[in-house]
Prior knowledge:
About 40% of the residues lie in helices and about 15% in strands. By secondary structure, the chain is an alpha/beta fold. The protein folds into two domains: about 5-35 and about 270-360, Aspartate Aminotransferase, domain 1 (Alpha-Beta Complex); about 50-265, Type I PLP-dependent aspartate aminotransferase-like (Major domain) (Aspartate Aminotransferase, domain 2, 3-Layer(aba) Sandwich), CATH 3.40.640.10. The strands form three sheets. A seven-stranded mixed beta sheet has the order 2-8-7-6-5-3-4, sandwiched between helices. It has a four-stranded antiparallel beta sheet with strand order 9-10-13-12, covered by helices on one side. Strands 1-11 form a two-stranded parallel sheet. The longest helix is centred in the C-terminal third of the chain and has 23 residues, at about 265-290. The structure holds pyridoxal-5'-phosphate. The site of pyridoxal-5'-phosphate (PLP) has 14 residues, from helix 4.
Amino acid sequence: MPVFPWDTLADVTAAARAHPDGIVDLSVGTPVDEVAPVIREALAAASSAPGYPTTAGTQALRQAMVDALHRRYGITGLTPAAVLPVIGTKELIAWLPTLMDLGPADTVVVPELAYPTYEVGALLAHARAVRADSLTQLGPSVPALVFLNSPSNPTGRVLGVDHLRKVVGWARERGVLVASDECYLGLGWDDSRPVSILHPEVCGGDHTGLLAIHSLSKTSSLAGYRAGFVAGDPDVVAELLAVRKHAGMMVPTPIQAAMVAALDDDEHEHQQRRRYARRRDMLLPALRSAGFTVDHSEAGLYLWATRGEPCRETLAWLADRGILVAPGEFYGPQGARHVRVALTATDERIAAAAQRLADPAR
Ligand SMILES: Cc1ncc(COP(=O)(O)O)c(C=O)c1O
């Protein structure tokens, strides 16, 4: 395994903490807002749970996943047999290649700039990870699995319908499994319109060889609950279910009940989206006024920013102002001159960051 990247930030973290008005931590991207009462009540009501949960999820949960994907993202044609709850999507991503029985002979494609767990998943299965954003980069080789992530962590880039359609057609011709990580799908800003791999405009209503991975961590601020799910090709979902049953990968019963409440209620999700939009509106102009160039960032929870210098220098410059961000190099070699700035802090902390960026005396 590679060194756990966050462990390398001790010095800049200490520097940012030394700011007289306290640290503004925009590094990990952990949600900070209250869990909605409707979710907490469902959790509490289900807290007497002496028996084992079902790996497949309760009937209510499976229906809630199908309905939410239809209502929120226009995904049609899913049945309760085509969805499966997971213990947070990091768990699924890290173990997907292993659960699919990939091994040393297999290649897993991950984006050039990517959430590190895709590569970790390949390593855990002893498979080979290859970074590529375009199909031509792959040449004639046929990978076993392609991870997509739109909107992207860390860049906020959105893959359009045409791009996704091409990937689906290419993968179908070759029998390649496509796993699309869609945890930021509801967070498109400006004119960007993120779309699911399972949307009929992308896949023509045929989910063969396609998986969409959805997390409740950011949309419902449930990162502490560990709640996510996967949807798509019913045969692949059945295979995942069969292995996960044996391996004890079950979502706890009270969390399943909380997920139903979260998926059935769109109001708290809209409210969370508005919070992040407000924070983005404060931080984006502040970064630009301070001389940063912000690339992509048209969706999702991060601003992908550069001062045209190595990312560790930018990290130190920001830490001097009490602001902690993530170095772009965590996400791939192409990130060496960028930093990733998360929108996941309270309004008060985001305002403090904007003020420090505007103030030469900080
Ligand atoms: C792209 C991406 N995928 C997956 C995850 C994991 O989310 P969780 O395990 O909380 O569902 C994250 C978390 O930040 C992420 O950025």
